[in-house]
Design brief:
This protein folds into three domains: 22-181, NADH Oxidase (3-Layer(aba) Sandwich), CATH 3.40.109; 198-333, no CATH class; 343-441, Nonspecific Lipid-transfer Protein, Chain A (2-Layer Sandwich). It has a five-stranded mixed β-sheet with strand order 13-12-11-14-15. It has a four-stranded antiparallel β-sheet with strand order 2-3-7-4, sandwiched between helices. Helices cover 42% and strands 16% of the residues. It is an alpha+beta fold.
Length: 445
C-alpha cells in the first residue's frame, strides 16, 4: 500500500485535490449557453432528464451515461442552396460536412466541461450507431424529440424538425450532462411548419401524405438505399450472382460506382427533397412569400423533373405512386433488407412497414400467439387503411395465428416455406388463410 501511495500520479493527484475547487453542482444556464455558442452551435436548449416528453428514452440514455441529469440540445445550420440542388453530390457533401461540424461542436463542448471538472458525453449526431441492434433502434439518443422539448422547433409533416429561424436546414446534436442547470427551456408555442405541402409534392416516393401520413418504409427503401438494409440487399445481389454478367444484370455500372463512392466517401442519401423544398423559418421564408410561383419553379420543379432511379419494394405503395406521379423516373424493384431478428422486432416494425394503400378494403382483427423461444401475445387490427398493434389478445379475431417464434422469423426472412410450416404445425391458423395473404400484402419486403 505504501508503494501505491508513493506513486507519482497518486501523489500529484492528492496534491492538486487539496487545492482544487469542487465543480459546480448546478450550472448557470446563461453561461452554459454562451459556452455552447462559442463552440459553434447556432442555437441551444436544455432539458431535464425527468421531462415527461423524453420519458420513453430515459432508460436508454441512463444506460449510456448513468450520471445524466440534463440534456443539452443544439442545432448547426446547413447551407441552404447546397441542400436544394438536384445534384446529389453537392447535397450529400453538405449533409456530411455539417454532421462533422455538429460532432465537433459537441466534442468541443464536452472537452470544455471536462476541463471544468464536469462529466458529459456526446453521442454521435448521426452515424456511427449501435448496429448490433439493427434492424431495431440503433441510435443512442433520439435527437428530434429532445430538440422539440428544448424549444428548438417542432416537427413538420415531413417529420423533420423545423427551427423557427433557420427552418429545417439544420442538423441536431445532443449532449448528456451530469449536472443540473439553473433554467430549462420548453417547446415553442407554435409549429413553424406552414403546411404548404411542398414536401409532399417533392418527395419522389410519396412517403409524405397530404393528410399527414408518413410511410417510413418507402422513404427508407429509396433514400437509404446505400445504407443498412439497402447495403445488405446489394451485398446479397452479389452473393446470389453466378458471375459478373449476372451481377451486371441486377446492378448496373452506375449503381456499382455509386456504392463504391458511398463506401469510400460516406454513404449517399438518394433524396432529401422534403428538406430542400421546405420554405419554413424566418431566415428562409422570404423567396416563398415574395413569389410562390417562382419559388416552386426554381426549387421544387427541378427535383420533380430530375431523371433518376427510384428504388421501391415490389408491391409497395411507392411502386404505384412513382409510376403514376413521376413516369419519367426509372423504377427499380429492390428489397429493403429489413428482417426482424425477434418477435419484438416484428411487432415493433409493423407500423413502420405498413403500406396503407395495399390494405384497401381489408377490415380484420388478427390474434398472434408466439411460442418457443420468444413467447408473446399480440393483436393487430387493420381497418380503414390504419394499423393498430396491441399487447395481448383483444376483441374477436378474424384470424388467429399460432406460431413457433423461430419458424415465424424464418418465414419472414423467406427462409421457411409456409406450406411446410403449416404441415408440420409449426404455424397454425384459425380462420381463412386468405386473411394471412391479405396481411402479407400490407407488408411487402
Amino acid at each position: 500500500m505504501a508503494k501505491f501511495d508513493e506513486h507519482p500520479t497518486v501523489k500529484r493527484f492528492r496534491e492538486q485535490a487539496s487545492k482544487s475547487v469542487a465543480p459546480p453542482v448546478i450550472l448557470d444556464a446563461s453561461a452554459l449557453r454562451q459556452l455552447c455558442l462559442d463552440a459553434g452551435a447556432d442555437d441551444i436548449g436544455f432539458v431535464e432528464i425527468d421531462r415527461p416528453a423524453i420519458a420513453d428514452q430515459k432508460e436508454e440514455i441512463i444506460a449510456a451515461f448513468g450520471a445524466t441529469k440534463t440534456l443539452i440540445s443544439f442545432v448547426c445550420r446547413m447551407n441552404r442552396e447546397n441542400v436544394r440542388t438536384p445534384a446529389r453530390s453537392i447535397a450529400n457533401h453538405e449533409f456530411h460536412e455539417t454532421y462533422e461540424d455538429t460532432n465537433k461542436v459537441a466534442r468541443h463542448i464536452v472537452q470544455k466541461l471536462e476541463d471544468m471538472g464536469i462529466c458529459a458525453m456526446n453521442p454521435a449526431a448521426a452515424f456511427p450507431m449501435e448496429m448490433e441492434r439493427f434492424p431495431g433502434k440503433v441510435w443512442v439518443v433520439s435527437h428530434k424529440p429532445v430538440a422539440v422539448a428544448a424549444g428548438l422547433g417542432h416537427m413538420g409533416i415531413h417529420r423533420n424538425v423545423i427551427h423557427p429561424k433557420f427552418g429545417n436546414f439544420i442538423l441536431l446534436g445532443t449532449i448528456l450532462l451530469s449536472t443540473k442547470v439553473t433554467a430549462y427551456t420548453h417547446p415553442i408555442d407554435y409549429n413553424p411548419c406552414l403546411e404548404c405541402k411542398l414536401c409532399v409534392a417533392a418527395c419522389p416516393v410519396g412517403a409524405i401524405g397530404a393528410d399527414g401520413h408518413f410511410n417510413f418504409a418507402t422513404c427508407y427503401t429509396h433514400n437509404y438505399r446505400e445504407f443498412m438494409g439497402g447495403f445488405t440487399d446489394w451485398a446479397e445481389s452479389i452473393a446470389d450472382s453466378k458471375n459478373a454478367k449476372e451481377y451486371r444484370q441486377k446492378v448496373n455500372d452506375s449503381e456499382s460506382a455509386s456504392m463504391w463512392q458511398s463506401l469510400s466517401f460516406k454513404a449517399s442519401y438518394k433524396a432529401a427533397y422534403c428538406i430542400a423544398a421546405c420554405p419554413a423559418g424566418e431566415d428562409v421564408i422570404a423567396p416563398f412569400l415574395n413569389n410562390r410561383k417562382e419559388f416552386i419553379q426554381e426549387v421544387v420543379k427541378p427535383l420533380q423533373d430530375k431523371a433518376e432511379t427510384i428504388y421501391v419494394v415490389p408491391g409497395s405503395d411507392a411502386e404505384a405512386y412513382v409510376a403514376r406521379r413521376f413516369p419519367h423516373k426509372t423504377i427499380k424493384r429492390v428489397g429493403n433488407g429489413i428482417r426482424p431478428q425477434s418477435i419484438q422486432g416484428f411487432l415493433f416494425g409493423l407500423s413502420l412497414l405498413f403500406q396503407r394503400e395495399q390494405s384497401k378494403g381489408l377490415d380484420a382483427v388478427y390474434h398472434f400467439t408466439f411460442t418457443g423461444n420468444e413467447r408473446r401475445l399480440a393483436t393487430v387490427t387493420i381497418r380503414n387503411r390504419i394499423i393498430q398493434v396491441e399487447e395481448g389478445h383483444t376483441g374477436k379475431a378474424n384470424l388467429s395465428v399460432t406460431a413457433d417464434s423461430q419458424t415465424w422469423l424464418r418465414f419472414l426472412a423467406k427462409e421457411q416455406n409456409i406450406i411446410w410450416a403449416l404441415l408440420q404445425r409449426k404455424i397454425r391458423l384459425q380462420g381463412s388463410p386468405k386473411l394471412l395473404l391479405a396481411f402479407g400484402k400490407c407488408f411487402p419486403s
